[in-house]
Amino acid sequence: MKLSIFALLAGAATSVLADWEFPAGVPRSVDEFRARHPYHSKRTCRRKVTIRASSNDTDDVSDEFLKGLQEANNGGTLWMPKGSTYVIGKPLDLTFLNNVHVRLDGEIKFTDDTPYWQEHAFRHPFQNSIMFWKWGGKDIKIEGSGTLNGNGQRWWNEFDGGEILNGDNAYLRPILFYVENATRFSLEGVHLKDSPCWTTFWVTSQDISLKNLACTAESKTTSLPKNTDFFDSLNVKNVEVEKVWVNIGDDCFSPKTNLTNAHVNTMYCNGTHGQSMGSIGQYAGEKSIIEDVVVENVWMLNGQHAARLKSWAGPNVGYGYINNITFRNFYGANNEYTAFLDSCYFNINASTCAQYPSQVNITNILFENFQGYSSGKYGDAVARLTCSPAAVCENIKFKDFNITSPCGGKPVVICDGIGGDIGIPCVNSTSPEATAALKHKCTTAMAVLPTPTPW
Ligand SMILES: *[C@@H]1O[C@H](CO)[C@@H](O)[C@H](O)[C@H]1NC(C)=O
Ligand SMILES: *[C@@H]1O[C@H](CO)[C@@H](O)[C@H](O)[C@H]1NC(C)=O
Ligand SMILES: *[C@@H]1O[C@H](CO)[C@@H](O)[C@H](O)[C@H]1NC(C)=O
Ligand SMILES: *[C@@H]1O[C@H](CO)[C@@H](O)[C@H](O)[C@H]1NC(C)=O
Ligand SMILES: *[C@@H]1O[C@H](CO)[C@@H](O)[C@H](O)[C@H]1NC(C)=O
Ligand SMILES: *[C@@H]1O[C@H](CO)[C@@H](O)[C@H](O)[C@H]1NC(C)=O
Ligand SMILES: *[C@@H]1O[C@H](CO)[C@@H](O)[C@H](O)[C@H]1NC(C)=O
Ligand SMILES: *[C@@H]1O[C@H](CO)[C@@H](O)[C@H](O)[C@H]1NC(C)=O
Ligand SMILES: *[C@@H]1O[C@H](CO)[C@@H](O)[C@H](O)[C@H]1NC(C)=O
Questions:
Q1: What CATH number should be reported for the domain holding residue 435?
Q2: pLDDT per position as a tens digit, 268-280
Q3: Over the stretch 380-393, which tens digit does the pLDDT of each residue have?
Q4: What span, in angstroms and rounded, lies between the C-alpha atoms of 226 and 222?
Q5: Are residues 246 and 287 located together in one domain of the fold?
Q6: Ligand 8 and 402: CB distance under 6 A
């Protein structure tokens, strides 16, 4: 198969991305993803509730939607058939749910009255989040072939140039799907589309299942869909993610403070910042952990990093640990660092990081069976691990790590501050090998991909 792949060129102010192709067998679009992983709703004999659909883009049916869920609660299903659009123009508190299903084959679409939502949306203190609605309760399932549409274009346009994590950012954008205090929540089949900010955020919940989803955020202007992470969480346990297609502009699967036990299997992330554990350790005095996670069978394409861990450093940050994380069976194409451990998050320079190092311990991390190639942005450096001198960083291992450099040199793994050996050769960032590798940036076509794909 013919492949012509150009990296996002390092150093250069402009980047060139032309004409790349996915490996054979890897879906290239939502349609191909659906063809490879078909989704069929199951028949059901649950009590059926319907509501009227919107007749135009400003016909707000949020009152009807709320009423429909109240009626369907305790054993029923709210049906939202194909071809119908349901416009939501008011914040909805849906935290009363118990044993309710939503069969979403149509579209739920939020209005894009940005000043209205900024004034009336729900709020969560974590990273200054705002939300269109809140879901919560027990035994909740949303399934179908429909769409949850965040209508994000106006939000991205108006936010353009902003930086969400800057303390002085005042332009807040709603999260498309927010869940709080839920037990046994399942989201299946639907397309999560064009979220203004994070796509999903799960808070103080357990037994979460996300399957067969497509998640996209695609701009029609030059304003990019920033911070549209597929998955973020706070205080959750027992998470299953399976067969998900993601094409957005930030983190792919990215649990934050306090996640225990997650299994991610079969994901395609295009143009993302990576499968990211964290960031954690952001807030002064606060403990945060991420523990017991397996992320496997993943294609990371045209993004920033692939397997990633990030913890905050700097004055006034928190502490905690990331423990027992396995990244297994990764295929990376055209990513900056395919494995990246960053203990100097967010946006601080090396001297500030050295002065106020991260207090997040990193232990028992495995990167196993990585194939593919990097983007050349960091030359022949294909992976980088930076541990904190103020925290434990132990048992970080690589096994069958075969990421090549498109710049043609021997791939180099950079590591600083790690206790013990990592299973493959690595050099520190001031070594002559690292310096030379980082300098050897490239602008040429990528290496040929293996066919068939390795898993
Ligand atoms: C949208 O639909 C509502 C309800 O049917 C109607 O009152 C309103 O006039 C319509 N607006 C437009 C712009 O068509
Ligand atoms: C979630 O639970 C916490 C603790 O019980 C409570 O303070 C909070 O109000 C709940 N949130 C909702 C939306 O019910
Ligand atoms: C994949 O991501 C790249 C870079 O963001 C983008 O140019 C391309 O359109 C995306 N492809 C698909 C199929 O979504
Ligand atoms: C995270 O869990 C720790 C206990 O391990 C707790 O002290 C901390 O408050 C939790 N963080 C949040 C944001 O709830
Ligand atoms: C590490 O996490 C995985 C995934 O939750 C779990 O299956 C495994 O038992 C954990 N290992 C240890 C040593 O706790
Ligand atoms: C980090 O490791 C050190 C040394 O084992 C330990 O004293 C400290 O409690 C750990 N931090 C956390 C948050 O568990
Ligand atoms: C690093 O950042 C700090 C805080 O912004 C600044 O005071 C310092 O001058 C910077 N140091 C270097 C070497 O750029
Ligand atoms: C590593 O990847 C390259 C390029 O895809 C391939 O030629 C080589 O056989 C692989 N090596 C191993 C040990 O898998
Ligand atoms: C980095 O590696 C070089 C050898 O390549 C060594 O001389 C130097 O002391 C190392 N620096 C640190 C901080 O370990």
A1: 2.160.20.10
A2: 999 999 999 999 9
A3: 999 999 999 999 99
A4: 12
A5: no
A6: yes
